[in-house]
Specification:
The complex is a heterodimer of chains A (511) and B (343).
Chain A (H helix, E strand, L loop, with lengths): L9 H15 L1 H13 L1 H8 L2 H34 L5 H7 L8 H11 L5 H13 L1 H13 L2 H9 L4 H12 L1 H17 L12 H12 L3 H25 L24 H30 L6 H35 L3 H12 L5 H15 L7 H25 L3 H9 L4 H12 L1 H17 L2 H6 L7 H10 L3 H29 L3
Chain B lengths: L4 H21 L5 H4 L3 E5 L3 H15 L3 E5 L2 H11 L7 E3 L4 H8 L3 E2 L3 H4 L14 E13 L24 E3 L4 H29 E3 L3 H9 L5 E5 L1 H8 L8 E4 L10 E9 L5 H12 L1 H9 L35 H10 L4
Parallel strand pairs in B: 1-2, 1-3, 6-7, 6-8
Antiparallel strand pairs in B: 3-10, 4-10, 5-8, 5-9, 5-10
Helix pairs in contact in B: 3-11, 4-5, 7-12
Classes of the chains: A mainly alpha (511), B alpha/beta (343).
């Protein structure tokens, strides 16, 4: 029985995943408790009103437009950088990840400065696409790189043309990568606020934050949070349906061959336009804004001591948060590969849904819980870290899951046959093989924590100053000159993490 | 399920590393309160309160730790924390946040000597907090789009159909909600509800007063209701969001000439009453008010005989309406705004 569910390590790992799931259910429990407290009728009146309809349409359109657009852009860029003789392909590949280092508010501000008329759905989709397409580019490029060209050669020998090979052979093999990336983008868009701060575009999350600013823990905000959770379940259901359950680990003798690079020749210039344009829009536009702020501020705004403190706090929180989140995500990631099933799926949903909640909903739940029943934990580093874990679990899971999926279960069994205990086998064999994925997950989580604002403001100990909180302070008094050094430091702290992600995607391909 | 000692060593190592990197970065976090220092929950601009705190610490030797947030958010947080709040002092941008905390009975009375530093009309009658700075409501407009004679005479004129689609505001912010609370106090509920309803039809919503001014500057919209200091602040810094902007003061005790008070109060639950009272007194007194005059916050000084920044329109010339400051209510305002579909 146990063997069918992923071997003898199943029980303890499953237990750990249950504990994490229960923690992840805290915010949802809080929203439900708020609904019960206000009474069913009031809650329903707050959910079924025209405003919620407007927000629902906006949110659905945002996801519906951004994700396919991001997928197309990511596939095009991935193909160009991995499968063609595009000049400078390695540099373009890294630049395609670098937009993750730009804080959302800067994207928003830069675009409103560049195109003041930008607003509504079009504006929302544009900035979302530019800020989040790397979430799709990373897995797609990595997958494309390690595909065994034998399949494509076989298809070609059977008379398939290049187009049919692309759609019938290559694209299906990219499915798990596209699904994972799309899921991550979907969850983030549900929870996104900073990107839309300056663009007149309302989603559930912007409405929740607006409500929070005037009514704090108001029922209206919490009910909107409830609707958001439902949206997230729909996204998760769609992803599961599309992802399917094929096996992707390659066993067999020998290594996969190197795919032949497509020679662009005369289509080189139009093809080069795609990465150039992407980089100009996603990096150039924010860069211009940052430089203008820096020039306006001159040397005076570089208060090194204050910036150093904020840097230290941010780095410590990001490191600790990333490490903790990755550790906490491990049981679930392992289960989802080794023992998929209905129960595992339910636990996985618990892990993912929190990622779609705006920081404020998670933070308020933790404030209320710690103030009322766990007072010693109120305003401690432990509570902030817990918030980070909840908010960024999906980021850690996606990287880990892909890596574990590539570690053949046969190695775990062999280790046990040679005398390792089941947990030792998992930890020493699979987790070691999955270490690059864990590192990539950590980098993704670290990127998130570096720019996280709301949970940090509400939960961190008194006297905590992160780069994001200082940047926010200055921008909210519209002192962009003084805010600039913090933004630049955030970008500089984030760039190595994007580099790590880029290197990891290369390693995943084993080349 | 035996685990090898090596596993435990690894886990312990990881945890130790985790703990160490957190502890290394936060060596001084709890020291402020330990050494008789105070914790200030600050919703004012961080730079301004930081400047106050640094000067106060230099003079008194009392250290100050700031926790940053926005008006209503921190006000509600203090109410939620109740009598066990870690805060000693609460400082806001607008007064409704102070009123909320006062209504929960969480303030200690401010020292009489401090009250004497601030004119009566800039503090509530019960003396539970004091005004320490002020900002005036203005109609900011694009100089190339509107001429002087086209400007609204009163903020209430913006409800007129002729203004449809031509003006902006940031309804979700505490700033705008304070302005509405003044309108409510001055003109009553019926007028306020009607004005908000017309506003819903006429105005364009932006997030944040700075965003409103940016849109005005870019010519996206002709004008908007914001506070005065956004203009002066931007002019003093990058200037990139205010080059085409001019300010129109409504005067005539118009609701649109509302002067919003930034408040400071001492929490009754504070274990550092003397230090907390000293901080509020210092800010309300000569030193604190001079920071307003000489710094770049561009907020009005309100202390008895205190001068404001030379670049500002003089306080006396603003002809602000006389509101009853303790009546400026946040709950009623958000209810009315929600009913009008603005939130």
């Amino acid at each position: 029985m146990a063997r069918r569910h992923g071997g003898p390590a199943y029980a303890p790992v499953f237990g750990a995943a249950v504990v994490v799931s229960l923690l992840a259910l805290l915010p949802l429990g809080f929203v439900v408790a708020m609904a019960l407290e206000t009474g069913w009728e009031t809650a329903m009146a707050l959910v079924f009103r025209p405003r919620v309809g407007e927000l629902l349409i906006n949110t659905v359109l945002l996801l519906g437009c951004t994700i396919p657009a991001a997928a197309i852009l990511a596939i095009a860029l991935a193909w160009l950088t991995e499968r063609t003789d595009l000049p400078g392909a390695r540099i373009w590949a890294w630049l395609a990840v670098a937009p993750l280092a730009v804080p959302a508010f800067i994207h928003s501000y830069a675009w409103v400065t560049m195109a003041p008329g930008l607003h509504g759905l079009a504006g929302g989709v544009l900035v979302s696409l530019l800020a989040y397409f790397p979430f799709l580019y990373l897995p797609v490029a990595s997958q494309l790189r390690r595909l065994d060209p034998a399949l494509e050669n076989a298809a070609a020998s059977l008379g398939y043309g290049p187009w049919r090979i692309a759609t019938r052979v290559v694209l299906p093999q990219l499915r798990i990568a596209i699904c994972g990336g799309s899921l991550l983008i979907g969850l983030h868009l549900l929870a996104e606020y900073g990107l839309f701060a300056m663009i007149r575009f309302d989603t559930f999350t912007t409405a929740i934050v607006d409500q929070f600013q005037s009514t704090y823990n108001g029922t209206a905000a919490n009910m909107l949070g409830g609707v958001l959770v439902v949206c997230c379940f729909v996204v998760l259901g769609l992803e599961a349906a599309i992802r399917g359950s094929e096996r992707y680990a390659r066993v067999g003798s020998g290594a996969a061959g190197l795919p032949k690079k497509f020679r662009l020749q005369r289509s080189l210039l139009p093809c080069l336009l795609i990465p150039v344009l992407t980089v100009v829009l996603a990096l150039g536009v924010p860069f211009v804004t940052l430089v203008r702020w820096l020039v306006a501020g001159g040397a005076d705004v570089w208060r090194v001591a204050a910036i150093g403190t904020a840097f230290g706090h941010t780095l410590a929180l990001a490191l600790a948060g990333a490490l903790l989140t990755t550790l906490v995500a491990m049981p679930m990631a392992w289960l989802s590969v080794r023992a998929p099933g209905r129960l595992q799926r339910a636990l996985e949903v618990c892990h993912y849904y929190v990622g779609s909640l705006p920081g404020v909903v998670v933070a308020l739940a933790l404030v209320t819980i710690t103030v009322t029943v766990a007072r010693p934990l109120y305003q401690t580093v432990a509570t902030v870290l817990l918030a980070y874990v909840l908010l960024f679990l999906p980021r850690a899971l996606v990287g880990l899951r892909a890596s574990i999926a590539q570690a053949p279960v046969e190695l775990e069994r062999a280790a046990m046959a040679l005398g390792r205990s089941p947990l030792q086998a998992v930890w020493q064999i699979t987790m070691r093989l999955a270490a690059p994925g864990a590192a990539a997950g950590m980098a993704l989580v670290g990127l998130g924590i570096t720019t996280e604002l709301t949970a940090t403001l509400l939960l961190a100990p008194n006297g905590t100053h992160t780069l994001a909180t200082e940047f926010w302070s200055f921008t909210s008094e519209i002192d962009y000159a003084a805010a600039a050094p913090y933004a630049v430091t955030m970008v500089l702290l984030s760039l190595p993490m994007t580099l790590l992600l880029y290197l990891h995607s290369q390693r995943m391909a084993g080349r | 399920m035996r685990r090898s000692p090596a596993d435990f060593v690894k886990m312990a190592g990881l945890s130790a590393f985790l703990g160490a990197c957190v502890l290394m970065a936060f060596p001084r976090i709890s020291s402020a309160a330990d050494a008789g220092g105070i914790v200030v929950y600050n919703a004012q601009h961080a730079s301004l309160t930081q400047a106050w705190a640094e000067a106060f610490t230099r003079e008194s030797g009392i250290s100050v730790t700031l926790r940053q947030g926005s008006d209503m958010e921190i006000a509600h947080q203090i109410v939620q924390e109740g009598t066990a709040s870690p805060a000693d002092v609460f400082v806001t941008e607008n007064s409704p946040g102070m009123t909320l905390v006062d209504a929960a009975g969480l303030f200690a009375p401010v020292d009489a000597a401090t009250l004497a530093l601030i004119p009566e009309n800039y503090r509530p009658a019960n003396g539970h907090w004091v005004g320490i700075a002020a900002r005036t409501t203005v109609f900011a407009y694009n100089k190339n789009k509107l001429k002087a004679e086209q400007l609204p005479k009163s903020m209430l004129d913006l409800a007129d159909p002729s203004w449809k689609g031509r003006w902006a505001a940031s309804p979700s912010g505490a700033d705008f909600q304070a302005i509405v609370s003044a309108l409510l106090d001055l003109k009553g509920e019926a007028t306020t509800a009607a004005w908000l309803k017309a506003m819903k039809t006429n105005f364009v919503a932006y997030r944040g007063n700075g965003t409103v001014m940016k849109a005005i500057n870019a010519g996206e919209i002709e004008g908007g209701i914001i506070y005065h200091y956004y203009y002066f602040g931007d002019q003093a810094k990058t200037g990139e969001n205010s080059g085409n902007v001019a300010l129109h003061y409504f005067r005539n005790e118009d609701p649109g000439a509302f002067l919003s008070l930034s408040g400071a109060g001492v929490l009754a639950s504070s274990k550092n009453q003397a230090q907390a009272q000293a901080f509020v007194k210092w800010v309300a007194g000569k030193g604190g008010q001079q920071v307003l005059r000489d710094g770049d916050s561009f907020e009005y000084a309100v202390g008895v005989g205190a001068a404001s920044h030379a670049k500002l329109e003089p306080l006396a010339k603003l002809q602000a309406p006389k509101v009853t400051v303790q009546n400026l209510n946040s709950k009623k305002v958000t209810d009315l705004m929600t009913a009008a579909g603005l939130m």
